[in-house]
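S1.2 Input.
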Amino acid sequence: MTHHIKQFPQVGDLIKVLEDKIYDPYGLSNQMGIVIKDGRQTAKVRWLNPKAHKPLESWVHYNRLRLL
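S1.3 Output.
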C-alpha cells in the first residue's frame, strides 16, 4: 500500500489561490503569486499582480493553494 504525501508548495513555487465563494474577506480567490516563505500551515505569497490598496504579500493556508 502506498501512502501519498501531500506536496505543499515550497519557496519559489508559482501558485494560484483556489476560489472560495463562501468566505474570502481579503479577495485572494484566483490570485497568482510566488511562495516566498513557508510555515507550518501557511505560506507567505508575493502576488504577481497585487490589487490596488491590498498588500503585496499575504499569508495563505496551504489548503487554498494550488501549484501551477
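S1.4 Remarks. The chain has a mean pLDDT of 89.
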